[in-house]
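Why this split exists: single-chain examples teach little about how molecules sit against one another. For that reason, every record in the complexes split bundles all components of an assembly together and asks for one structure covering all of them. Below is a record exactly as it appears in the raw files.
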Amino acid sequence: LIAMQTIETVTEVREFVRRRRCEGRRIGLVPTMGALHAGHLALVDHAARRADVVVVSVFVNPTQFGPGEDFDRYPRPVADDLALLDREGISAVFLPSSEEMYPSGAASGVRLVVGALSDQLCGRYRPGHFDGVVQIVAKLFAAIEPDVAVFGLKDAQQFVIIEHLVAALGFGVEIDGVETVREPDGLAMSSRNRYLNPSLRGQAVVLNRALASARACLEQGEQAREPLVTAMLQELRQAPDFAVQYAEMVDARTLQPLQHVEQGQRVLFAIAGHLDSTRLIDSAFVTAP
Ligand code: PAF
């Protein structure tokens, strides 16, 4: 087995990838913010099946956090992350500093802006968040030029926006989405779950239950918005400390809210809210029968 390389600069990661590409290898990228869990490992496994060389980036991207969000307290267990990735047998970890990724400062320089796709769902509650996400993802694509990049479908809006980013800027990369990995009780794995105390952790199962309830209603033939959204809200109310931001039913491609679902339409159910100060999201793509 070849030892995993830890790379800190854009120049070095570009050179690392260029050599592998010259040898005819396919390059896979898994962008992360670290604090890795089984959900990330599912992305790495998927990338390893789709590419010969897998690069995982670990970077807590300042431009996607708003004022008052958890940038400062976001977990950064770098040594644990590196040990985990080493055991996975990946080729390289790209671990840049903020100065390396934003040489003219996080707030200045050239910036990308997401259009109407960021007016819905999380974008409404996190102004500028998706601008920051596409900024860093575009920079990673430019530095690494992967053949395939892998993202989790839990961040459904992020996934759809990244597909649009690739089409808009013409990156030659395939975007693959991987199903959400869940705890045995159904809670979606997230780096932020570690903020939850046992009582909040117990209540966090309502997000998945709410999605399951809406899915069941849809699969039984319900097509109207009101009963489908109500099915989610009823489950969410079972958690006394969960403050709902949204429980939405949108078109999976345009992310526009749906009043009525057509036969065969691909729908995204999405939920966000706070358990105490921890913001949790979950989502499910479902095709209407
Ligand atoms: O999904 C994430 O962890 C982040 O938003 C990403 C894609 C790594 C960009 O910072």
